[in-house]
Amino acid sequence: MPSVISTPARRSAYLRLFSLRGTRAFTTGNLLARLPMGMFSVSAVVMIAGSRGSYALAGAVTATGLVATALAGPGIARLIDRHGQARIAVPATLLSVLGSLALLLCVRFGAPDWTLFAAYAATAATPNIGGLSRARWAHLLRDDPGALHTANAFEQAADELCFMLGPVLASFLTGTFFPEAGTLTGAVLLLAGMLLFTAQRATEPPVGARSRAPSPLRSPGIRPLLACFVATGMVFGSMEVGTIAFADAHGHRAVAGAVLALQAAGSCAAGLVFGARRPAGVRLGHCLAAMAVLMALPWAAAGAAGSLPALAGALLVAGMATAPTMVTAMTLVQRRTPADRLNEGMSLVVTGLLTGIACGSAAGGWTAQHLSPGTALAVPAAAAALALLVHTASTGVRRNVSADGPEG
């Protein structure tokens, strides 16, 4: 297998990355399978609300899926670490696709409400697709930290891109064709992408003997990192609700999705630059500090200018702090998690983010309802400051116990 280091230096960091054999094929499959992650929630809300006339029911069903995913994710990842990606991810994806199709049929044929919850809960079997891809990069680039940094930046940019395009595609499909079109297309893309991804066996991390390594939760420094991910998830959840509430209050609810996409666009662009440049000496604390400062901009824009265009510009800038923070934190998780339990470690990150998103959505919604939409945009700023505080406190404790190296 060719080495990233031996590739001519004149080529860009990303071209060098994808010169490795098999990386383009598994990335193509991964992107196909990851795109539906931004489609399913929007598709389900449109489908259920349009059929049953209740956004409350639609929100409750999608929230159930979120909780189920957070609970099931680490267990599925543990099985993947123990038995291999292809052996577990394919049947798990099939179960998830069946759940999506069952939801579609239950909505289409007027099944009782409880069946919607049961069907959507089955979609929690979806493996952490981004985590599977990051595990492959960590295996392939285990001897090249610089290239692994670039790979993690690419993966974060891919996350942002899929969550930008997914809701747009779902809205187009459900509005242009029929309400179930978004869910059906997402299920097809998920299955096709996962089959292509897992077919690339040459890049799959090997499965050794049953791991005796402790749970990633017991690895030094992991718990504070997960706390940071929870706080970061609160940033995402509260920013989404606050932006929608602010746009609605100004009579522009229809463009709220496009405004939110600007935050993801800023993050995607910053992530690609961060991955290519590989700035020396940048630690997680620096990224969290930048996020704490930039996440205050939307709140300030909403209060000072009070206009949606001003908020849109602030979201674009604020989003630029997200990807560097996620890339740096994800690299730390890879370093601190036992190699044969890496998928489980990545899944715990997703659990932390989902928990934070749920908490942030609730906090942002309460603030928008009982105070004001503009004040709700202070919640993401507070959550970003909390993430910085957690990291600063944990770093101080770790320094008093033992040296932790330069990455934290």
UniProtKB/TrEMBL annotation:
Keyword terms: Membrane, Transmembrane, Transmembrane helix
Pfam families membership: MFS_1
Record-given protein name: MFS transporter
UniProt keyword annotation of Transmembrane present: yes
Spans through the membrane: 31-49, 55-76, 88-111, 184-203, 224-247, 253-275, 287-305, 311-333, 345-365, 371-390
GO terms, molecular function: transmembrane transporter activity
PANTHER family xref list: MAJOR FACILITATOR SUPERFAMILY (MFS) PROFILE DOMAIN-CONTAINING PROTEIN, PTHR23542
InterPro entries in UniProt: MFS, MFS_trans_sf
